[in-house]
Hints:
GO terms for molecular function: methylated-DNA-[protein]-cysteine S-methyltransferase activity. Belongs to the MGMT family. The structure is a single chain. The protein is an alpha+beta fold. It folds into two domains: 4-65, Double Stranded RNA Binding Domain; 82-160, Arc Repressor Mutant, subunit A (Orthogonal Bundle), CATH 1.10.10.10. Helices cover 28% and strands 16% of the residues. The chain has helices at residues 55-65, 82-90, 102-109, 116-124, 151-160, and strands at 4-10, 17-24, 27-34, 100-101, 137-138. The strands form two sheets. It has a three-stranded antiparallel beta sheet. A two-stranded parallel sheet has the order 4-5. The chain starts with a strand and ends in a 9-residue tail after the last helix. The relative contact order is 0.16.
Amino acid sequence: xxxxxxxxxxxxxxxxxxxxxxxxxxxxxxxxxxxxxxxxxxxxxxxxxxxxxxxxxxxxxxxxxxxxxxxxxxxxxxxxxxxxxxxxxxxxxxxxxxxxxxxxxxxxxxxxxxxxxxxxxxxxxxxxxxxxxxxxxxxxxxxxxxxxxxxxxxxxxxxxxxxxxxxxx
Length: 169
């Protein structure tokens, strides 16, 4: 059996998340997770909506939003360049409830300071928001910058994870 691309929607406090995956006889591999209005969101290449193969992804997302999960353990496949894949993989090393600056992330990857924009561009192309937690990367001054899902969602996620204090109004 050849792999086929399918998608589903997962309701969340951030809006309906679009999950896309490749399913074969060995199961589902998640290829993208996007948010409504996401800048540069991966397109849906599947006309087929199937919820069943995404059962584990739904379970883990529900647990994350309920505060019971701090890491995702799902089979993932991403495109991208070798550099992008290295940046995305490095996100797994930023613990839940913490943040890292673009400079810190670049230093971990051996990227010269003069080329940090490449790290930002790679983060902006991350096809697996939440699962590969690019929302945990912030400016050196603590500013929330450059999240494809929007800065307000980044703030919500970091507050949910305890990395930011809730804003009182």
